[in-house]
Amino acid sequence: MSNLPDAVQSIASDQVAATPSNAFPAIESTLAARQIAEALFVEMAWRTDHGQAPAALDLFADDAQFTTPFGVLDREGLRTFLTARAAASHRTRHAVTSTRVEKVGAATLQASAFVSVRRIEDGQPSAQFADWTMTAVQSADGWKISAFKVSPFDVEGSKS
Fold this sequence. Notes:
Order of helices and strands: HHEEHEEEE
Number of strands: 6
Strand content: 35-45%
Radius of gyration: 16 Å
Number of domains: 1
Distance between the termini: 41 Å
CATH topology: Nuclear Transport Factor 2, Chain: A
Structural class: alpha+beta
């Protein structure tokens, strides 16, 4: 079963002529790569924002690494992090924009995006910003994130 909405999987499928029914097509166009990357970023954000953070684990490959300013998490560490996130008392909304995608191979892409996070905790709103980068690979189960990195963006101190 695919980890992305059917419409996104069909986008990639539409880019290729005949492929066996059990095979996922190669990335044939930059547009298809962009749509796949954006879908993964948005699904990650949506699931996190709507109390389904543990379901975001389905977006990741078994050997994925998730890098934060606090360290690198393997799949089990990510499971713990996402479970704790779902139990947290604060609410968030992520806005993902400025996605840039590079095809690395027929079944691999790298992408980056700028993310704005609105957070409400104890009735107090705040804003956080970050760059998200990922590598995604095609597998028998659909597109999966093999590496994901969150790099906070310091509005006050950044010059780039």
